[in-house]
Predict the 3D structure of the following.
Amino acid sequence: MIEAQQLTKRYGEKTAVDGLDFVVKPGTVTGFLGPNGAGKSTTMRMIVGLDAPTSGSVTVNGRRYAQHRAPLQEVGALLEAKSIHPGRSAYNHLKALALTHGIPRARVDEVIDLAGLGSVARKRAGAFSLGMGQRLGIAAALLGDPQTVMLDEPVNGLDPEGVLWIRNLLTSLAEEGRTVFVSSHLMSEMALVADHLIIVGRGRLLADTTVSDLVRQAGGDTVTVATQDPARLREVLAGPGVDITGHIGSEELQVTGITAREIGLKAAEHGIALFELSSRTVSLEQAFMDLTRDAVEYHGTTTAIETPGRAA
Amino acid sequence: MTTITATTETPPTTTSERPAYRVTTAGVLRSEWAKLWSLRSTWITLGLGLLFLVAFGLIATARYKSGYDSGTLDKDFASRTGVELSLFGTDFAQLALGVLGVLVTAGEYSTGMIRSTLAAVPRRLPVLWSKAALYGVVVLVVGTIGAFVTFQIGSGIVSGTPAAMSLSHAGVVRALFGAGLYLGLVGVIGAALGMLLRSVAGGISVLVATLMLIPGLVTLLPSSWQDNISPYLPSNAGQSMYALTHDATSLSPGAGLWVFLGWTVLALAGAAYRLVRSDV
């Protein structure tokens, strides 16, 4: 369980995180989405106490991260940037982290196997590929058998097999009742694993929703229909919850709130000729872009006001 | 396609047999110990420091011996004692050992390791104390062994000359231990500077400036100021710790130790302040 209250981080005049309020619940995968520079990594660094909030607070399982007796047992985090010494082997890196908490050697071997690093565990981590480095970061995150697992852009640099591995890992961690918080700037990737979504842009909360709600909000499924007599078809289809749009003089209409099948049946019933009838599922990617574009526009005006000060 | 697993609002299943881990001081010390020795640079730089200490000490004694035998001893060399000759390499050893101190801390920042370290120990200060203490003790041990070994071999080389001395000679044992302690504290200062500046290049620059450049700059001051300032500089105070004799322009070994400890504490305090206050 992660709880943020009015979490804010400023770097000089730049506000990276702006009054975020959210709760990440156990038992599900929560996606943390936003374009690059939205404040996702900063938020995650504040959760594990690497950055101090300018104001507001964030707690993990009811306490600030640093106040836990065994922080690695509460939150296992994979941060965006590399957090290893390239001269140390994967095994020695994990062992050094384990020693701080009194985590036994057997657990180190366990997470090495879990991350599929068995064959390279004794090699210098500096020689690792991006994907191997990512696996080592995930092994470190799981070291303390944490209740909350937080991963910043975990699929970065992974091959398809690695991406699949991450997906299954995240799902199984959530099934075990853990809190799983994963950031990404790719909606398509999140849609595959996340149940819940926290969407941010320019440091602000844009949406705290579920994948299915987001689809509904974005307009749900649209049917495109082309007909000989658009005016009559409009009349025939009109009803509660049905929304029809189309250009005057055009044969094409966009219909929501009714299925393509129902449109076809009604048109046949009234003898209206149809030329085209196709349904289109709104893409989550589009929904996400719409949400974040608004945020950029909204903030664009504030930035313009701030500019004279920042030009110095 | 979206695969939405039914949002089962299960309460956190806290597995009953979860082991009770805990961050302890001993744990942090063990972790830092493991980190120190799992890097090749530690072995290389410590070896280099020891080599400088022993080799330059022995070269100095051999140089004295050959000069004495042939009667062509340099003037400033002629007045040297066996201890001074043996500890000739201290200046060079302190560079290698101080640089390693900087690497122990600033190296974590340049590589990003610090994020893993501080995520595991979010209270942060135990990391600084453990690094400083462990590395200080390691250098103290290496430096003391190096000083004694060099003196034992060196005193054999210069036996039969005016520089000849034995361990039983007054102040010799103190001077040799003083050299080890001085090097240990240089290591601690290096570690503190690395933590304070968070940059390997910056840490090394300040270390070298403090130990080698500032004493030279002070000679630009009016001489009355020099006499008051010079003995208290880190380098000069440190040298008093392992000098066999002291005069009006230098501190006694005890006073030198206190002044040098003061500088060490100052560096550590700055490092602690930055570590606790700044984001990483």
Remarks:
- Residues 25-277 of chain B form one domain.
